[in-house]
Batch of 2 targets.
Target 1
Amino acid sequence: MWRRSASFILDRDDTAVDSLTTITSLSPPPATHSTSSMTNPNSNPNPAPVSAYYQTRAAHHGVVNSNWLAQAQSAVAAPLVSPDRPAPQAGGNGGGGCFSVIEVFNEWRKQPDLAEAVAAIRALAAVIRNSGATTMMELEIELKKGSDCLKSWDTTSISLTAGCDLFMRYVTRTSALEYEDFNSAKSRLIERAEKFGEISQKARRIIAMLSQDFIFDGCTILVHGFSRVVLEVLRVASQNKKLFRVFCTEGRPDRTGLLLANELAKLDVPVKLLIDSAMAYVMDEVDMVLVGADGVVESGGIINMMGTYQIAVVAHSMNKPVYVAAESYKFARLYPLDQKDMAPALRPIDFGVPIPTRVEVETSARDYTPPQYLTLLFTDLGVLTPSVVSDELIQLYL
Amino acid sequence: MDQRHRVQRAVSDPKVRQVGFFAPNPNPISDFPSRSSPPLAGSPSNATSSSPVIIIPPPPPPAARNHPALSHLVVGSYDAASESLLGSSSRLPSSPPYSARGFVVDGEFSEESWPQRSNSAKFASSFPSGGFNLTAARAVITPEGDASPAVISANEKNEVSAVEAKNERTESSKPEKAKLTKSERRALQESQRAAKAAAKGEGNKPSAGAAPCGPGKASKQPAQKKDTASAAPSSALLERKGSDRLPEKDRKKDVPAPRMQFDDKSRVEKAKRRAVVNQTEARNRVELFRHLPQYEHGTQLPDLESKFFQLDPMHSAVYKVGLQYLSGELTGGNARCIAMLQAFQEAIKDYVTPPEKTLSRDLTARVSSYVSFLNECRPLSISMGNAIRFVKNRIAKMQITLSESEAKASICSDIDRFISEKIILADQVIVKHAATKIRDGDVLLTYGTSCVVEMILLHAHEVGKKFRVVVVDSRPKLEGQRLLRRLVTKGLSCTYTHINGVSYIMHEVSKVFLGAASVLSNGTVYSRVGTASVAMVASSFRVPVLICCEAYKFHERVQLDSICFNELGDPDAVSKVYGRLDVNYLDDWGNKENLQLLNLMYDVTPSDYVSMILTDYGMVPPTSVPVIVREYRKDQLWM
């Protein structure tokens, strides 16, 4: 671990021992030992070397040839843990309710167009449906258990956590529920959960409409990675007969940029593909940067695929606007102070050649972009400045 | 949505001219919101006049008082006072009505009358003449620092109140822009309410419940000012006095506004006559800080101690706390606040309502006198101001049907609740949040002593996190040593340095934890002097700065520098080093004419240097402070 000052030589000894124990042949997680200090100490039953969130994404946008997964699997000494694996374990220590939550969640998650938060809420709805609770309080406790279970199952997914929190908030906050009899309250909750999927679909449409004002004829848009919202924005823009071109970054390691370029080419939008390191090279020509977000945090910054931060920094230094398209259910009560201040989401990287075991590989899948580098956020609540995110969160959660 | 974008931008543009009394539209004629509303347009008011200088017509005869629009005018502008000031401030090139209106809002600076602030700020803002030219006014002040005191104070108040008004604007501007009819309706409503209240005031029997929001109190302050401003009483002035005169006694007990300008000689004289504490003012004060109170150190304490047994109006518990403030025995925002609240509790327990008085009114006055006493001992901190507001509000909102003992018990339990929820529990929540941000291997830097930061460090140590602490300290208080001692006894590994070494040590620091006396609504952190430098150094080293502050210390004020509101400490503390006999260069120089010693107590850290504010509502960015103030102040302090 790199230290700022020579006086930390002592510390380094400790961490060296630490990281030796956690080392795996391909992906020595550089920040694993700090996981314990993360927000969720009762840790993940599945300390997977690969973030489940990114596994799902990879499964949905299967543009990457599947052999990198196979390769990674064979390279990692411990067999790659499949998403269903930890479920029985979790069920073992969390009780029967836990078991079904994660099963259901995984079922929902397989649908490619469904956001993770929606899947989580559907899973929680299943908890309500199957619960034998007779009072609101019991139900709440069961839900709490279920959502904790989901959250701890995959600590790396921000929208999962945010979705659980949001639904819990709805259950505990809605005062109307208290005055109804239990059964109707229950059905109302289930109904609400079912509706949530539609809400998330609608959110994307709203965002796409809101952002049309910002896309002008003849503009050049730089996008990074694959985001369903960004794609929707660009699709609506091309439907509105706007003339614009898109620069897509490649999006290593899972090459999500290729997928986006594919989709855009189908829409007859002029696309240019770049390698990730060419972003500063093309920034002169770019009129705006448009990215999605895995999560929007309380400071107004975003957590997104690796490389977003550097794009934002480059764009900021060249005075180009950086726009973020994100649904409001991605707003999370997190406040990372720096890049290392997050639960690390890891994924294997295929370099094409064998890497010596002594060489460390940075496998973190995402980075944190501080709010001062962002211009505006397009959300279904409206077009917001980064500082408004916290205001909305405060109103939502407090 | 594009429009929303533009609005945002417009607000963030630094427009000095707009800071003043905000008019919803720069062009008053074309679409002044209430222009089309019949009562306003029909009234003889010049509210819609296009002239930048408003000449307010003499108020109507009392018969017309019930007319809503008229009373609107009366409440909104203390025209009488303004005219009187006009005489004395002819030196000012900027238009006098503005500076006079500074007085209006100034009245609301006293802690008690908060609820009406918004009202008259709105009135002020509904005047068409938007841009009070701040810069122009300043330019006048600075060259002639000791011009007539009234003028200076007026302007300074204007600055502060202008900022308040801006604050108000951010809240109110949205609906106004969205719908003109709404704002019209509101203006109408306000004026009607004001008219009703004025009518009540005329009857000279203000009900106890309406006390904090009636215009009676608002008029009190300006009335006093009129005395001091001493000008020819116009007919309007007389009229005003007659309309809502307050009992002489109440007026006497009125607290001097906490932000009294101490370079205003006549007001200082007046305050002195009322004062319990006899203090000599320091003679040689720094030019820029003359508006702040500064006394010869050590003159008050013996005097007060000798008076201990003839405590006429003061309760002994309050007296004790006051003495502790004075001697410096009791420091730290939370400790001072808790001590004060507990003293109030004692006093309330022993309180007996005098015959022919109501509890809520008399007790409020009593508390006010305690507050003014404590203020004389040491200027109140912002957190204490908030707590006082809470107490007074509880007293004022007390149900009239309660018996005396019930009322007293309920106030005491409210105070208990405030202490436990807003201070003690809040601290625990902050500690819990902060612990998630401390990782193994961290090096945490702190400055001075903050009890929350101390609790955080101790908690993280107990939990078993491995980290080091750098305690930065500064002369003359050397408070950090106290913290250091406690940390070292608990077994934390610490480094101690003075603020001169902060840029050296900063490169090995991973997080900076700082306490705060208050966080203001623009995210500015008001804290022990030196905090700003530490935060600045940290942010230039890209080390995150975390401010730990309970939400009850948040204040809706906005402050841009640490000059207009601050506290001055003992100047000798800067010039002398106790225990060092060889450092005696300045020993007898304290009274030299050409030497001015400045010992500031607080400074202001701009929000740019702050990464996060840790509060009992979680971790928020500094931009969210106004949201917390707006959302929670209302329902928790003003239920």
Target 2
Amino acid sequence: MFGDSIRKCLAGLQGTQTWRVGIAVIAKENYPLYIRSVASQSELKFHYTVHTSLDVVEEKISAVGKSLGDQRELYLGLLYPTEDYKVYGYVTNSKVKFVIVVDSSNTSLRDNEIRSMFRKLHNSFTDVMCNPFHNPGDPIQSKAFDGIVSGMMVQTG
Amino acid sequence: MSIPDYMQCAEDHQTVLVVVQPVGIVPEDQFFKIYKRIASVSQVSIRDSQRLLYIRYRHHYLPENNEWGDFQTHRKVVGLVSITTCDSAKDWPQTSERFHGQKEVYSSTLYDSRLMVFGLQGEIAEQQRTDVAFYPSFEESPDVERRVEDFVESIFIVLESKRLDRATDKSGDKTPLLCVPFEKKDFVGLDTDSRHYKKRCQGRMRKHVGDLCLQAGMLQDALVHYHMAVELLRGVNDFLWLGAALEGLCSASVIFHYPGGTGKLAGRKPSVSQAADTGKRHRPGAQEVLIDPGALTANGISADTSTEIGRAKNCLSPEDIIEKYKEAISYYGKYKNAGVIELEACVKAVRVLAIQKRAREASEFLQNAVYINLGQLSEEEKIQRYSILSELYELIGFHRKSAFFKRVAAMQCVAPTIPEPGWRACYKLLLETLPGYSLSLDPKDFSKGPHRGWAAVQVRLLHELVYASRRMGNPALSVRHLSFLLQTMLDFLSDQEKKEVTQSLENYTSKCPGGMEVITLPDGMKLPPVPFTKLPIVRSVKLLNLPITLRPHKVKGLLGQNMSTASPFIYSPIIMHNRSDERCKKIDFQWVQGDVCEVQLMVYNPMPYELRVENMGLLTSGVEFESLPAALSLPAESGLYPVTLVGVPRTAGNITINGYHTSVFGVTSECLLETLPTVKTSGCLVEVIPSLPRLQLSTSLPRSTHTVQSMSKEELCSSVSVQLFNGEKQQMTITLENIGSEEIQTLELTSKIVSTKEKVFGEFLSWDLEDALSHLPLKPGQAVTLTVGIKVKLDFSGQESLLQDLNEDGISVTGLPISSPLRQVLKARSESKSVSSESGKTEYSHVKTLEAVLNFKYSGGVGKVEGYYKELSLGVHVDVEPSVFFTRVSTLPATSTRQCHLLLDIFNPTEHELTVSAKNNQELVLHASECQRMAIQVDKFDFESLPQPDHETVHFSNPKQLEEERLHAQGGQINSKLGICCAYSAVLLNQIHPSLERDGEASVEGVLNQLVLEHLQLAPLQWDVLVNGKPCDCDIIADCNVGVAVTLEVKLTNRSKNPVGPLALTVMPYQDFQNGVQNYDLEDAVTFIGSNTFNIDTVKPRESSVCEGALLFLYTGDFYLNIKFQDDSAGRALPLAWFTLPSVHLRALEAPLQAGA
């Protein structure tokens, strides 16, 4: 299959192991604030996946922005499915993006669970932002946030 | 059919395919020139009908693809244009043969063909044929386009006939089954009579007719036919053809809705801008198709509403188009062999969606397209496919996806399976991905604000660029990319990565050093230079003033002139706001041409290892500047580290420090300050004044580390120190050498005693500059010497506490009676202040310091003309050790009224024996810590002759101050005059130390109190007594004879300011028996001739009065005359001391006759 060749191409670059779940927080200006995936070896692949998913996120935001204005659903839903993973997106009102990537084989996760994951993530992110010593725009280095993400990884992965 | 045409779009369905091919040997460039001319005829309006025919030209078309012509007629090659060269008529048959051979290839589908022969001149053997055109050369072929149009028209005629033939062929009982190549064997042995089969045949034929109608420009008919085909084929589950019918429907609808086209990408290299353009561009031809005279008039009012309604009904809505495309693609997907069709359908749908701006749905189509398997693809095809995916993603605005696929394509170019990796292509594709990763290769974009974009992927891309450019064999490029990576991504690299990157950078630069030139790529892209502003990071730039000895000073008067030129107003409330950048601000000091100037940079090494910066220098403008580069080595993760860059301005003017240049890892960079917003600077513009000479100073005295108080060390060029006893003198030789390149024309020397609590008597520093000045102008390299005398004369008076010490130590203070009241008082005090005595003791042995600054002002050369001079300061530090103390001073009247005795109690606080001598060679030897009294006979002084205080000083002070000032000035003047007087009277002290053999001069200046001063003062009324015309004073004994009248003359000279008198004097003779008894009863021994009382009238200032009398001694003997004031009515006001008259001692002798006895 053609998709295989892409995968091979990527695999050739970044090693063979694929991640099972990954969470990314992306700033308004589309650079990563926080990136975490289970398998560190294929981290770059994860970067590429999240990076390309931003296209869809931006597309969705611009589409929503036109119609509804402030009454916007933060949860963007499935951004795009591929053969081996699903990418979900969530955008806060300040245009900070959360992206969760899960293995396609993981069927236990329903839309609702993903939604609650995002909500949890958002709450924790808000806490991080409330820290007066955190400089908005800097990479997130909060231990509490790390803990929340780790918890989610264990739960889903 | 295996090779998809990614350029296809929906409106291609209405075109007819014409292949243009060369036959025989045709130069490629000539062929493409002709091909272009042919291709310009892309639409032809048919003469009789209002329809338009669209033509798609290909110069290469696989016959294999042609086999799908029945499936979709636009895939069918219906026309062939061959281009050939033919030099002579002889070759003609052969050429003709070849043309026919070529026709054979597409013979099954060809409607018509043409041959264009170039180069054949003269007779054409064969008769004129319609399908052959002869041109003498490629240039002389004016009617190519017309011929092509004719050709197209002939094609149209065939097409139209076919359409009509097929369309009216409904009733025919035997409808042929159209099929795609891979289906052929499936239908072998199928029942051709079944209803199912017939329906299938009909459906497929309908679809085919629809295609033909579309090509023939009959959109409406096509829609109708497609609809019918869909109905028919749906019934028989002929999915492949159903898909084709649906796609046809979509295509027709797209043509209807979007006459502007759906992104026909022109040429071989489609670009984003072109794709966007096509959406807006309106093809006039398409408009004509739409405005079918039978259906629609120009103003929108339909002539026949039924057709309009029909069209609206038949035509799909934009949403439906996508739905139908989806359906069609899903049907295609059922057939493995129809992969190309499916893929092309996807591409077409994406283009339609791009027009509709439905990017997300488009991405779904593309996502699907990614997974369509076309069997074994060659590497080249893969690259093509990734590239087209990338372009399509770009089209729908998914720049990141686009970049991703482009990068995959680039990687594919150099896949290990390819025997000859195309690094060049890879590099080119990688460059195209840059915008998708929001990466520009201009470091300026990264200098402002926070980092943009996704660092992790950007780093990866840059690494790939570096690698690709290296494999391309362009080390300069890889150095540039690597520098860029290091400069912009430094914050995102781990320590290990930093090490690796720098190592490889050093490897590359060893072959090809990096520079500051712009690298231009073959395709015109420019790679701006990458200055390493982060290696090291510069935090601040500070221009340093010259060291104080080299600093130029402006002559005051000229400065004023300069200021006045700035504005005609002395003061203006409107401040000229300097809006220009802080950096442009002029710094308020000057540099001197030819002198080494310094700029201090605070640098920081962000690297985890030592950073070697070579050839670090300044970039300047405005003045010719010789930069002296420095090399430095910064320790790992150093803190702020000061670096001083130096240079010499070679001309005068305003110099601007623009930046600095470095060479790190073999990459030279020029960092301009204006591009570095984080650099702090207090201004970069400084004035360079014309050259001034330089003077070097050396002294005969040892240099000291002492710094003169209230002056920082750097303010002095050097300082010398010497240790002297109080009162000692020393000579210091100063050598001044001109070490500059300019002549020294002027030299001035001033000195200043640094404020000290000690009172200094006499001139501390003295010199004679005349000799040195006679050597001017001083040429470079020449030296001049100057002798400066150092004389320390501090207070010699013993402190009160010292006296106490002495008393307590049991040292007898001679001259102070044991029971004197003063002593008592002192004693009482010492008891009450016993604690302080300790400190007092240390004080008297304490070495006092005296400091002064010698200031040399010199100038010369052009700088002097401009009014500048330089200063050189020499600090003189003297440790003054006490030599002698005058613990107590008192006076005793001498026998003469003009003289008195000064009694000095001299104390030797040193540990040495010293000899004290006064002017009249009295020598006194004092042992250590010994105190002795010394009596010196001195003449009284005349204070009245002191000059009046300077009027200048009186002028410039307010009335209140004036009084104080005058008092002070007078006091000071008296004091100083007194000092001189004292020096004149010379209490000479030769301090001869047995071991040291040093001598000095002590002064009593500070010791004298008011009482003593009064005693030392000459009375303003001067009395002179003359006996027998001889002055008589003190010890002089005037001789006279008994019986002879002795004339007595009393002369009063008034030196005071006021008139004195009148006065009455009484002369009283008496005899002193030397036992304390004075006999005034001498009336029978002495007789006055005349009165014994003198009357002196008022004596005006500066006048004198003389009164005379006479005495007659009757007996021999020693007589004294006591001259007293009788009447003191006027004299009372004056101090008694003024009226001290000398006592006259007379010795009356026998008459000369008896003299011998």
